[in-house]
């Protein structure tokens, strides 16, 4: 893992702040539907981190959208995938995760149909990777619930009652070693089509030229 934890903390805070600004937009009804929320959130995350420099590390980011035939009508296996690449002297890894997005308020009953659909989507993601999650959007904030928690539940419930992480904690874990599957190391359109992923957020961190020169000399 990275020797300097400040890189993880500072970078994860930028990602989380971008997501939290989306909650503000959602709260005033500027964004209502899950796909629209997800696309806007990923775009804001990209803008927040792209070009960011901290402690000798420079970030790049891009968002990709499925462009296959009848992309609007086809069934997607995941709403988005996150792919992370670290190319640093002390830490080199490519890994990713899959995610579904759901708009569910705390304390709101979840219908049998909603639950069954969410559970089936989680099962599809888990058939690809154990690193599968559900991002729950609510006016109180965004929480991240493991897909395994949903499919393991013996009774239908509100996901806010399950074990969850904040976006900040989730991305801190993702930037360290505890979240991510090395089998999901590509965010190109061909991979998205194969996995039936709607969108992808690709993040890459590399050593800045100045830090590289300091290391050499």
Task: Provide the fold topology.
Elements: H1 5-27, H2 34-49, E1 53-54, E2 57-65, E3 78-88, E4 91-103, H3 112-126, E5 132-138, E6 141-146, H4 147-152, E7 165-166, H5 167-175, H6 189-195, E8 197-207, H7 209-216
Helix pairs in contact: 1-2, 1-5
Q: Give helix and strand order, one letter per element, not per position.
A: HHEEEEHEEHEHHEH
Radius of gyration of CA atoms, rounded to a whole number: 17 Å
Mass-distribution shape: globular
Q: How many separate structural domains?
A: 1
Distance between the termini: 24 Å
Uncertain segments are 213-217
Going across the biggest sheet, name each strand in turn. Answer: 1-2-8-3-4-5-6-7
Concise structural overview:
The chain is built from 7 helices and 8 strands, in the order ααββββαββαβααβα. The chain is an alpha+beta fold. It has an 8-stranded mixed beta sheet with strand order 1-2-8-3-4-5-6-7, sandwiched between helices.
Describe this structure in words.
This protein has 217 residues and is α+β, with helices and mostly antiparallel strands. It has one domain (5-216). Helix content is 39%, strand content 28%. The protein has seven helices and eight strands. It has helices at residues 5-27, 34-49, 112-126, 147-152, 167-175, 189-195, 209-216, and strands spanning 53-54, 57-65, 78-88, 91-103, 132-138, 141-146, 165-166, 197-207. Strands 1-2-8-3-4-5-6-7 form an eight-stranded mixed β-sheet, sandwiched between helices. Strand 4 (91-103), helix 3 and strand 5 form a beta-alpha-beta unit. Helix 1 (5-27) packs antiparallel against helix 2 (34-49) and helix 1 packs antiparallel against helix 5 (167-175). The radius of gyration is 17 Å and the shape is globular.
């Amino acid at each position: 893992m990275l020797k300097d934890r400040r890189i993880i903390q500072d970078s994860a805070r930028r990602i989380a702040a971008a997501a939290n600004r989306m909650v503000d937009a959602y709260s005033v009804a500027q964004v209502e539907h899950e796909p629209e929320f997800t696309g806007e959130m990923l775009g804001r995350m990209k803008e927040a981190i792209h070009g960011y420099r901290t402690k000798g590390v420079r970030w790049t980011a891009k968002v990709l959208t499925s462009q296959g035939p009848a992309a609007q009508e086809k069934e997607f296996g995941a709403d988005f995938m996150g792919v992370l690449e670290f190319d640093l002297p002390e830490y080199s890894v490519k890994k990713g995760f899959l995610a579904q997005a759901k708009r569910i308020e705390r304390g709101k009953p979840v219908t049998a149909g909603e639950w069954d659909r969410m559970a089936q989507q989680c099962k599809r993601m888990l058939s690809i990777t154990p690193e599968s999650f559900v991002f729950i959007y609510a006016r109180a904030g965004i929480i991240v619930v493991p897909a395994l928690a949903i499919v393991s539940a013996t009774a239908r419930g509100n996901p806010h009652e399950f074990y969850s992480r904040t976006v900040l904690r989730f991305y801190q874990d993702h930037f360290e070693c505890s979240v991510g599957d090395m089998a999901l190391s590509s965010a190109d359109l061909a991979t998205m089509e194969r996995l039936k992923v709607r969108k992808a957020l690709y993040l890459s961190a590399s050593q800045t030229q100045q830090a590289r020169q300091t290391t050499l000399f």
